[in-house]
Task: structure prediction
Amino acid sequence: MTKQTLFILALLLAMAATGKAPAATGDAGSCAQRFFYGGNIGMVFSDDHTRLSAAPLAGFRIFPDWSAGLQLALEYYAYDYLLNGQTATAKSYGIGGGLFTRYELPISFLRQAGSGLYAHAEYDYMHHRWHYNGNQPDRNNNRQSLLVGAGAYIPLGGRSRIALTALWELWHSDSAPYSSAPVIRIGIQF
Result:
């Protein structure tokens, strides 16, 4: 883990242990009300790529408009490629996780309705095991990515809401795992 990752984790743990968060304008609720959990499912489809993912998450509302958290991820990824003039398929099963942060736009009429718009950024790390149907051996691969995008909350009642998010990859450490298509996620948050 990087020093920045450890710092964010230590900050979140310290706030949870003390029951306090940094002072902010507005009311974000008690410490227990600042925690949220949920998960996302994601999908990317293009001409030659398919990606499906599931990611449970937990977060903390640091300020009324800003939250951060951790997520685990399970992923299936497949793409077609040419091998000796014929189409072959590579499939991967991955496990990993990352850190995310969201900034909710302070639009009062949306908040009063229980909905909202947000900007989202995340660092993502995945370990993949690749299987090929060609004459290539299986291999392991580690990937790091930085994704940014935006989303909207749709209220379900109480603290529950659906989170719809579109993300684009800014940086990755190996061959493009997301292609150029946006990553669309549908999640639920409690």
User: Anything to note?
Assistant: Strands lie at 35-45, 49-61, 66-83, 86-104, 116-132, 139-157, 160-172, 183-189. Residues 27 and 117 are 18 Å apart (CA to CA). Residues 31-189 form a domain with the Porin fold (CATH 2.40.160.20). The two ends are 28 Å apart (CA to CA).
